[in-house]
Structure formats: C-alpha cells, structure tokens
Task: structure prediction
Amino acid sequence: MGEYIAFSEHGPAELLVLLKGVRSIIESMTEVLHAGILVKDGGMKAHYLIDTTGARRVRVVLRYQEPIWGLRQYVENMFASDTKGGIYLCAIDRLYSAFDNVYQVLDPSTPDSEDYSHIIFGWLYTLSEEFICCLERKESIALVILGYFTVLMRDLERYWFIIGCSRHVMEGVCRFLGEGDRRWVEWPLRELEEEDKDRTDGQRGVDV
Result:
C-alpha cells in the first residue's frame, strides 16, 4: 500500500483525514460513548497478543532522550535562519513530550494497566497543517520525525488491528529518504528490529 498514516505516495494521507474525523466524533460525543458500550469498567476490552511491552518500555525509557535531543539540536542548527525550523522543532518537542507521557509515568511491571493510545495518536491528531504539508512533500526532516514516531506506534501493536503499522510506516519513511539522511533513523530502526526479535522470542516461548 502507498499509505503511510501521515503521508502517501501521491500526497495527502486519507487515513490521517479519517483519524481526524474519528477524533472529532469522539470529542463531540464523549458523554454518550462513556455511558454506552465504551464505558471504561464495563465495555469492550482490547484483545492483546503476546505482551513484551514491560521489557520494551524499560529499554525505550533508557534510550529515547539522547536520539531525540540529538535530532532537535541538528534541526536547530540546520534551520537557524529558516522559519521552517520552528515547524520541525514544534513537532519534535511535542513528540518528546508524548514519549515522556507514555514511558516516564509507566509502571513496567503492569504494562496492560493503562491505554496510552490517546497520547500516541494525539501527536498525529494535532500535527500542524504546515508540518503535514512538509510530510506530503516528503521533506527529509519531516520524514525522520515521523520515523521516530513509529517507536511510539509500536506500543499500540498490543492491539491485533495495529500489528505491522509501525514497520509499514518506517518502510515508507526509508523509501523516500535520501541516503545521506538515513543515519537519522538508525535509532528507531534499531528499536523496531529489537522489538521484532522480542516478539519472535515471546512466540517461541509460548510454543514450547
């Protein structure tokens, strides 16, 4: 498929428009939904696969700060006299905050106790139109920032219907990145690879 959640081969991403529409519906009908089938204590439960999130969260907590701040410093220097730098820095700062909110407040011993999808997808929902345009034009720094987001997306792959999304988006990012810019996605690529290994090892443990 040529859709990569926030951009596509040919420009705007239909999925992002759909997600924003779902968000608007949820926000406008919060009370009704909370009183109905989605009520927290009695509603639908998520269907989890093998859960390795406790281990991966500990690993990510120890690793995300340095690469994100390294990317931020690079953008700050690279676009010091360019107004576009502010667009990128805003997206990076909000992404860093999302990582903080998901990983720094967690109790790794109880990985299923909270649903952080609203924080993770919240980063997508609230991307500025300027940044989305940068993604649609497949500008390198915008693609790199989205690549970092895939590490957060991977946390949602506890849900069967999101499995594979982080890898698919990263493949799209790498597809449109120039060779010289791919060094900036080494960290998220490494995280996804390690998590693939964790999942494979976990499945083998169940089969034994």
